[in-house]
């Protein structure tokens, strides 16, 4: 099927089987290999990208369903010469070991901080209607869709908290 | 994944017509459960009808003072809606207890209701499963059944319905709006949407081919304390072993109204109105909680590795009712 996808601000014309996941289009057709395939079932979060500003699992959606949407991957958040604040914070805090989950962690955290800013509550928020805190418990709960098999969680939480504090 | 014919529905009516006309078709919106099952070929639709762009993604006030939630409203948007947070807190809490941030951004209201069980044997095509392959048997009955049902199950299937959202909606007396292929519309009480397995566990709902869920409506907000308590094997991103949705109103030290629904226990979200009636007019006490649990669990049957759910429900219910009456959130 022919389709055009807007990824990291550029349009890409594609001709792919309708079964192709957004993740497979990114990695196998567009060589955007920052998004990682971990479980391919929405359980690990390594494939997290931003869809119209919101984080989703790119393995659990069909590319053909996303014509007209704005997709941003880790490659669109920053470059080696111009890191995004979260990319820089993950480096500063050593928020990884093997690094495989890191692009998904950073995409997820980017949208998660926007969710907090928008006032979305979480499972651990005491008050559904108040402004959410940026506590470690809140960050852990909100990031539970991103697994780190090396268990670098303490440093991941510190990196995210650093950037979140700067924004609030 | 098996090949399929992909079609974008231009309207809800066209979707319903396509769904009735195309054999072995499935609607796709968020896709988080359907695509997962298509990858392992448990779901093998020949036609995939994309309804994700239909204008069913708004939450509106109803004339009765309730809410009409479009079928395509995401779990994230529903949980964060200021009216839901203020007036239907049990629903926000249930949604936030489910899945992950990424999945909630994709999962829709209609899709959440129609998601399939997470029974390990349903997910494993190498094993017998009457739901996946009618007549093949139920491997869970004599197998690992930690997550399985203790109420409402049958000798043919002991799978549970996995939704948190539906449990809260059931406690809130939600109704489901359905559009049929012939253009007619009807509403179904949420409690009547899912069927018990009986001898036909592969028939999970009372919907017909082509029937499209267009919205869920909630009546005017019930007063009282709203609690959703979910007990699971890890603190986040896991399905319920058991859950309790409670909306309880206390007047002068006695229970004036009580709405209780249970998740993780049965093939459908579970509500037992006799229990609620037995609580009304009574003063809170541990003995009353035990009598309520006795009633809920009257027909309960464990299957080995899920026997623990019976005492777990007892304790969870007591804890929730304590919290509801003590004024804790």
Describe the structure.
The complex is a heterodimer of chains A (168) and B (329). Chain A has 168 residues and is α+β, with helices and mostly antiparallel strands. Chain A folds into two domains: 2-77, Beta-grasp domain (Ubiquitin-like (UB roll)), CATH 3.10.20; 85-167, [2Fe-2S]-binding domain (DNA polymerase, domain 1), CATH 1.10.150. Chain A is 35% helix and 14% strand. Chain A is built from six helices and five strands. Chain A has helices at residues 22-29, 74-77, 85-93, 102-117, 136-142, 153-167, and strands spanning 2-7, 10-15, 48-51, 54-57, 70-72. Chain A has a five-stranded mixed beta sheet with strand order 2-1-5-3-4. In chain A, a hairpin with a 2-residue loop joins strand 3 (48-51) and strand 4 (54-57). Chain A is globular and about 45 Å long. Chain B has 329 residues and is α+β, with helices and mostly antiparallel strands. Among the domains of chain B are: 5-50, Uridine Diphospho-n-acetylenolpyruvylglucosamine Reductase, domain 2, CATH 3.30.43; 225-326, CO dehydrogenase flavoprotein, C-terminal domain (Enolase-like, domain 1, 2-Layer Sandwich), CATH 3.30.390. Chain B is 28% helix and 20% strand. Chain B contains eleven helices and twelve strands. In chain B, strands 4-5-8-6-7 form a five-stranded antiparallel beta sheet. In chain B, helix 9 packs antiparallel against helix 10 (286-296). Classes of the chains: A alpha+beta (168), B alpha+beta (329). The interface between A and B is large, with 41 and 35 residues.
Kindly list the characteristics that best describe this protein:
heterodimer, A: 168 residues, alpha+beta, Ubiquitin-like (UB roll), DNA polymerase, domain 1, 2 domains, five-stranded mixed β-sheet, 6 helices, 5 strands, 35% helix, B: 329 residues, Uridine Diphospho-n-acetylenolpyruvylglucosamine Reductase, domain 2, Enolase-like, domain 1, five-stranded antiparallel β-sheet, four-stranded antiparallel β-sheet, 12 strands, globular
